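Objective 1.3, modelling of assemblies. Example input:
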Amino acid sequence: MADAAPTHKSKPGPHSKPNREGQAAGSDPQAAAAPVDFIREIVRADLRRDPATPPVTRFPPEPNGYLHIGHAKSICLNFGVAEEHRNAGARCHLRFDDTNPTRESPEYVRSIQDDVRWLGFDWGEHLYFASDYFDTFFDCGEHLIGQGLAFVDSQSADQIRDSRGTLTRPGAPSPWRDRPAEESIDLFRRMRSGEFADGTHVLRARISMEHSNLNMRDPVLYRIVHASHHHTGDRWCVYPMYDFAHPLEDALEGITHSLCTLEFEDHRPLYDWVVEHCAPVIERVLGRPSRPRQIEFARLNLTSTVMSKRKLLALVEKGLVQGWDDPRMPTLSGLRRRGYPPEAIRRFCQAIGITKFPGTTEVGVLEHQVRDELNRHSRRHLGVVRPLKVVIGNWPEDRIDTLTPAHNPDDVTSVERALPFGRELWIDRDDFMLEPPKGFFRLSPGTEVRLRYSYVMRCDEVVTDAAGEPVELRCSVDHDTLGRNPEGRKVKGVIHWVAAASAVACEFRLYDRLFTVDDPDAAEGGYEAVINPRSLDICHGWIEPALAGVLEAETRVQLERAGFFVADRHDHAAERPVLNRIIGLRDSWARRQA
RNA sequence: UGCCCCGUGGUGUAAAGGUAGCACAGGGGAUUUUGGAUCCCUUAGUCAAGGUUCGAAUCCUUGCGGGGUAGCCA
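Predicted structure (tokens):
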């Protein structure tokens, strides 16, 4: 070998430095620019090796809860991979993994479809239910029994658990392990026909009770559950376990790359075992072989967020939030009601990438994508969330001027709107301080500010209530400052306002993070102990009439200096506007105060 | 305690043996009729130790650290 070929690493054929960016079949420039993670690498390599077999992926939720931002990561991956290879014939299925009737419901089937569509993905005609394959699963069960690879175990659940062994100690075989195949087949069929009560028998794979991987210790394949199923009704009283059903579902649909999260890593040997040993049945049904491959990636963890369906369900059931679509929830329906644009969520999923490292992403990354998207696409309006009355002494009582600012002053193509200005205004309480700290350049007694799009105004007098709280400001404007700066002095502060005479009353729901700490799961006392008491603040204020005129449910807008808002999907009405705060603007003043 | 997986700035992620880059966050400045946006600059990283190599984040060994895993859930 010493003096063999003079070559250094010249990788032959498919390994010779593939073009990592340009391999996608699609010509979408955004897709071409998207990062290529290790899964996309595998998909591309497989397609290069075998161009006649396009990638087929699937998003396989169990309809037992609402989808959340973590699912979005999986959806974007699975549908994204398919989109990138659309020209090669790739597709992505939406499949309900509905093998446990006791937890599932049609409400979830509906919401999941709504959410995937809202996110911007389309499964075309490829909508499937695992429960539609139950006959084939059962055939596979019989096939395995016939091969001596499965048996009906008549032990109780406790006995099975006790004989499974531990992490360090092997398990012991079931006394029924060597039951004749004919007997197992007979029992298996009688299980299906409803002869036995729940828990009396199960179908188990016959692999090894000494395997170092606990999943391989004669895993249960089928159990008896006398329960009505949302999709198959009362046709079945035996249901397959995930480990049995999932590889078969994938194989039956011709899935090439079965992408799932890291906790299934240890299940892969069993996945492969099922695919291999049921291959004859699958091939008979399909008329061709089908060998899906499972690849695992890290699920999404977000700071200041709980992601488990169980905890999300608990928040809903304990009334700590107002439902699955409460705008503080990380569910897709919650984020939607909160006003997060689907595009921002997709960009977020692209930004965080796909790896096997189980890290935690800062929510700030999500919020950045939301701000960025909103900033580029939202029209600007004026609205006052916490009103404080202003009377301009040197402005005639009945004079109303109409200003015509652009909807987006940063956008030269932006159209204008009519903005009335009069003697009485509402401004925000936060923009006035009786005793301002250093560096505060909004309004205080004797100082001037710019009224956005309007005049420079001075505060001449403050009317306070018995408690000393300001209730009204008497002010005057400099008539010479409309559209130009005053001479001889600099006015640094700019505040928003709404003319009282034409203002439209509006309810504002100010949302903030649901939890006060980065890792609510690790909080002592549990996540419920660290719920942010100020995660919802309801205020009653005013918006400019031009905004009230265009507001419909789910309309997103920026209220200048106050943040981005969306008309509530359910509670907004033209005559009674309700705006949810999506997210505040970056605020370097507030940050300096903190 | 067995088995499996994973360790790159504060966080997330690139670099396929050849200049450690990007984004978010942080800091500074310019600009500004949103304390926004925009633009410029900037702080900060290969878990450790050995080995292979002209050259290692990358390959090998050992150690350390983190995650997953003992449902008739998925």
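The radius of gyration of chain A is 31 Å.
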